[in-house]
């Protein structure tokens, strides 16, 4: 198996380096030098994913090449090249290897792949691209996010975990915890939600960082508040004791604060019953509104009967 994998990596490393459009502008000497440096970086990264080590002084030469490129017009494109070209090609090979297996075998092979990636490939990539600092994401973060999105998310791990919990390799739990600690600058993504769902299967108890399904009721209550927003903009007039003027000489005025207080009480009531198991998490807004209206009607009837007596 590893032999065929190595053959694929060798064919990958022999692929021609895609020439970025930015290299096509400028002098011929500068272009040749840039292409030579990019080729050396490309070959080194492919060798890292292949499992080969760097040659003596190769790391120093790669660092110097990246430092030089950062000072040229190519500097702003190094990060993009690392993310969209190098990581994609290397991790695509890893994914192909993982998908050759199925079921329990795939789970154990993924565990071995993660150990190699985390302990060998990732540190070497960090060393090669050490000059690439001061970015929105570090080389470590970019590499881990790429592994999550390009490898883990394309493996049916949600189906494999429940049936193999007793045989779960320790490195799988470590992989999920490490990847869970990497946050995108723009907030949790769909991939992050899926990752936390996997973590909940193997870590108990687990405190979610992203939105959990138990927040559905709060979303419903928020939508209910938005529905009543127009009624809060103007005061409401309600006459007490319409049938008995001597008992209802006063007018009760509901202000915005009174309406908000009533809604807060309704929310607390529904939330309390939710914790007691009397309200389902996925209760619809119409059901909440209907129940609230029934409560108001019942209170009105009770009040009318007490006044009648």
TrEMBL record:
Cellular component (GO) terms are: TORC2 complex
One GO biological process term is: TORC2 signaling
Top-level taxon of origin: Eukaryota
Q: Report the leader peptide range.
A: none
Which protein family is it in? Belongs to the PROTOR family.
What name does this protein carry?
Proline-rich protein 5-like
């Amino acid at each position: 198996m590893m032999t065929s994998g190595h053959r694929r990596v060798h064919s990958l490393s022999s692929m021609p380096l895609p020439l970025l459009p930015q290299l096509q502008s400028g002098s011929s000497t500068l272009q040749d030098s840039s292409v030579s440096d990019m080729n050396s970086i490309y070959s080194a990264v492919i060798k890292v994913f292949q499992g080969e080590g760097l040659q003596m002084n190769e790391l120093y030469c790669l660092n110097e090449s990246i430092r030089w490129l950062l000072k040229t017009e190519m500097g702003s494109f190094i990060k993009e090249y690392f993310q969209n070209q190098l990581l994609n090609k290397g991790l695509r090979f890893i994914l192909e290897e993982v998908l050759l297996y199925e079921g329990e075998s795939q789970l154990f092979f993924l565990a071995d792949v993660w150990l190699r990636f985390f302990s060998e490939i990732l540190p070497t990539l960090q060393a090669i691209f050490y000059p690439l600092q001061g970015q929105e994401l570090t080389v470590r973060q970019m590499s881990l996010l790429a592994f999550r999105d390009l490898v883990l998310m394309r493996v049916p791990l949600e189906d494999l975990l429940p049936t193999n919990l007793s045989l779960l390799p320790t490195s799988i739990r470590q992989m999920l915890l490490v990847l869970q600690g990497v946050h995108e600058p723009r907030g949790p993504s769909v991939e992050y939600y899926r990752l936390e769902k996997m973590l909940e299967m193997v870590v108990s108890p687990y405190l979610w960082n992203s939105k959990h399904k138990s927040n559905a009721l709060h979303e419903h209550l928020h939508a209910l508040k938005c529905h009543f927003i127009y009624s809060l903009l103007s005061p409401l007039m309600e006459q007490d004791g319409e049938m008995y003027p001597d008992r209802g000489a006063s007018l009760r005025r509901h202000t915005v604060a009174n309406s908000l207080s009533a809604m807060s009480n309704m929310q607390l009531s529904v939330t309390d019953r939710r914790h007691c198991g009397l309200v389902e998490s996925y209760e619809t807004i119409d059901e909440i509104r209907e129940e609230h209206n029934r409560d108001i009607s019942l209170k009105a009837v009770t009040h009318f009967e007490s006044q009648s007596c």
